[in-house]
Amino acid sequence: MPKSSLACQITRWSKRKETSLDDIVAVEEPLQVVVDGRPLAVLMRTPGDDELLVMGFLLTEGIIERMTQVRRIDIEARDNHAMVFLIDDHKCDWERLTRHLFSASSCGLCGKATVDAILQNHPPIGQKPEFDPLVIQTAPDTMRAAQANFDSTGGIHASGIFSQDGKLLILREDIGRHNALDKAIGEGLIKEIDFTRCFLLLSGRISFELMQKAVAARLPLVAGISAPSSLAVNFAKTSNQTLIGFLRPPHMNYYA
């Protein structure tokens, strides 16, 4: 049975003291969906109930109208593949699917046709500036005060880019976590902000895709109000990014 969570060691910083602790992070892994031999999409998910996930995906993306159009789904958990076989007389509009699934997505992953295409070639972060933990802990209140759309909806994500001394340089909100970060990075590029001297704060959980976007922008530190996934932690260690989860003063957890 696939694991949905993973144990890891963290360092908790609280009241000027550091403590080593064991923690649990949700597992995040790619699942490549292959339909009748054609790679269709890569879904980032927590393993488990993969067949249900794939069936719902096929329906909501308009690939099938009913489940009887699927002959079978083989889940190859070891290789993170879902092999879908449709009934012989059911035809897919592959040109439409290619445009819709491969090109329209803004998440940076859903449009990738193979698992190998996920990890883009962004070199690890080099020498990083020192970020004062006390400064980082002022960021959530600063960002929350600037979240006008969240005040009105209660259901929108935010990405904030802060200077080394804790000044909020950019705040962008969007219903999609990936979109909010893309907007913030785009504004920073237009304003020619030196991201290498900044840190990023995310309003929700920290996934691999968001870490990937952050390293592409050369952001050396990523913090989130909520938890990171296992793949985000592993990626941060590989990319030499500092990763902080559960940033809820007076506590925060260093995962990398």
3D structure, described in words:
By secondary structure, the chain is α+β, with helices and mostly antiparallel strands. Helix content is 28%, strand content 32%. The chain contains eight helices and twelve strands. Strands 2-1-12-11-10-9-7-8 form an eight-stranded mixed beta sheet, sandwiched between helices. Strands 4-3-6-5 form a four-stranded mixed beta sheet. A hairpin with a 4-residue loop joins strand 7 and strand 8 (168-174). The chain starts with a strand and ends with a strand. Residues 102-106 and 113-119 have low confidence and may be disordered.
Task: Provide a short characterization of the protein structure.
This protein has 256 residues and is of the alpha+beta class. It is 28% helix and 32% strand. It is built from 8 helices and 12 strands.
List its traits.
about 260 residues, Cytidine Deaminase, domain 2, 2 domains, Ubiquitin-like (UB roll), alpha+beta
Mean pLDDT: 85
Quote the distance from N terminus to C terminus: 28 Å
Quick one: overall form?
Answer: elongated
The number of domains: 2
Give the secondary structure arrangement, pairings included.
Blueprint: E1 5-14, E2 17-26, E3 29-35, E4 38-45, H1 50-60, E5 70-76, E6 81-86, H2 94-103, H3 133-136, H4 139-146, H5 148-153, E7 157-163, E8 168-174, H6 177-190, E9 198-202, H7 208-216, E10 221-224, H8 230-239, E11 242-248, E12 251-254
